[in-house]
Design goal:
This protein is of the alpha/beta class. It has a single domain (2-130), classed as Vaccinia Virus protein VP39 (Rossmann fold, 3-Layer(aba) Sandwich), CATH 3.40.50.150. The protein has five helices and five strands. Helix 2 runs parallel beside helix 3. The protein is globular and about 35 Å long. 36% of the residues are buried.
Amino acid sequence: MGRLVLWRLDRVNGGMNDFTLEALAPEADDRILEVGFGGGALLGQLLASGAARVAGTDVSEVALSRARKRYTAVADRLQLALCGETALPFADAAFTKACAVNGIYFWPEIGGRLAEFRRVLEPGGRLVLCYNVVR
């Protein structure tokens, strides 16, 4: 069931992933973090963009396993970590850019998560949060 949900996430989030990729404007020396990568499609786009390093976190072991298998060929440029509502498992200023697509709904304390993004982004880094507003 988990694999089906992840496949569906890739399909549903396609347009938002494209928008996020464009807003991040990856460059060759970028180190980019995606929090809550779900199906992993945006990870692939970030890796294909030529960014130097890409990292991703998710709460799902199924998502981590799928991403590891899916991106074996570029494993030297990809770091994946299981991470829920706790601090991000990365050093201060580890990334030049960071993003999350449709993840904000699941953060129990948005201010804490934003503080974590600030901590792991280098000064002047770029954060892109993409989500759907339902009215």
